[in-house]
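Predict structure. Input: Copper amine oxidase-like N-terminal domain-containing protein, 423 residues.
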Amino acid sequence: MNVGIKIEMKKITVLLFSFILLFVLSIGGAPAQASASKVHLALGDEKITFNEGQPYIEQATTLIPAKAFLEGLEYELSWDAATSTLYASKGELSFELKRGQKQAMANGENYLLNVAPKIVDGILYAPLRFLAENAGYRVGWDAANRAVALEPQDSKGFFWKVEKDGSELYLLGSIHHGNEEMYPMHPELNAAYANSEHLVVEINITVPMSEQRAADIEDKYMWYNDNTTLADHIDPETYTQLKSLFEESGALTAEWDSLKAWVTYMQLLNLNSAQDGYGGALGIDMYFLQKAFAAGKSILELESLELQYEMLNNFSDELMSSLIKETIEAFHQPDSSIESMANIWLDGDEAALVEMVEAMKAIPEYYQAIIKDRNVGMLEKIEGYLEDKSKETYFVVVGAAHMVGEDGIVTRLKEKGYTVTRL
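Output follows.
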C-alpha cells in the first residue's frame, strides 16, 4: 500500500483474532486523537500506519482515514466539496461516502452505516469494516491488543461471464449450504450482481406459498399414502441405524416413519451439514436471494419446487437406501462431503469440481436426474436470457456441479459459440 499509508515490514505475532466478534467492543466513542482509543492495523504481516490521522473507536465501530486507506489500495479518488462526498473507484469496484450521512454506497449497492463518515481535524473518517470488506478483505479483531487484522478475500468461487452479440450474463456456481468462512462475499461478485437487472436462481424460496399449494405438495411428494412406511422402502439394517441416529440427534418425531425415503435423506443431509457448522441460511444462493428480496430486485427461476420434488420422488428405493446408508456411515467422520465441497468452492478448484461431477456418473440414475436432465432445462432458459432483445444483464446463481463437465452449462455454452470467461 502507498499514497498516505506507510507500511512497516514487521511480523505481527500477537494477532490472535476472531472472525465472529467484528468490532463488537465494550468501549464507547472517544476523540480521534485520544491515545486510549488507538487501534493497530495490519494487512497480513505488514503493519499499517497513517501519515495523518489515527484509527479510533466510536460507538463500537472502528473509524479510519478513508482517503488514505483507499489510496493505499490504489483506488482513484475524487472529492465533491459542494456535497462533502468522496467518490472512489477501482475497476468494477466503487465507494460513495458523504459526510454526516449513514447511507453509503459500495460496488453499486446501498448500505446503512452504524456511524456516519465525519471530518476530524480536516480528515474524513469512515467505518473500517465497511471499507475493508467491500474492498475485498476479511477483518479480524484482537480485543486484548486493540488490533485489527486484514486478510485478502482471495476466493471468488466459480464465476463466469457469458457474452454474445452485445448480450452478457454472469454465472455463479453456488453451494447451497455454507458457513461464515465464505463471507464477506468477494466484492467483484457483489459488483456484478449490483450491475445486473435480474437475479436468477434455481428456485425463489422468498415467494410466499399458499396453504393449499403447500398442502398439495406435501401430500403428493413427502408422505407415503399407500399404507407403507419407510421400513418397507429401505433395508432393515439401514432403517435401524437411521432410527438410532435420529434418536441420538433429537430429530426423531412421531411421524418420521411416514416420510418418504428422499425426504428422510434430505433431513439426514441437513443434520450432517449443521453438525459440521454449515447451513442453508449461509448458502451462496440464499445470500443473493436475501439481497434481491430486500431491494425489490427482479428474481427469476430456472426451475420450480414441483419439478425438483418430482425428480427426487422418482428415485428408486435401491438408490435412496444406498444414499442413506452411505450418509449414516460417514456421519461422524471428520472429513464430511459438505466440508470438502466448501473447500473446493473457496479454493476455486475447477479440476476438483470436475472430478466430483465425474464421480457422480458411477451412479447413473443419480447423475442422469440430478445433473444431465436438469442441465438441459437450465441451459434452455439461460440461452433465452442471452437472446433477450432488451440486452438486460442476468446474474445466474446455480449449483456449482451444474457448471462443469461434459454436460455442464459452461461447457455447453462454449460449444454453442458463446464467449465464456472465468472471472
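The two ends are 24 Å apart (CA to CA).
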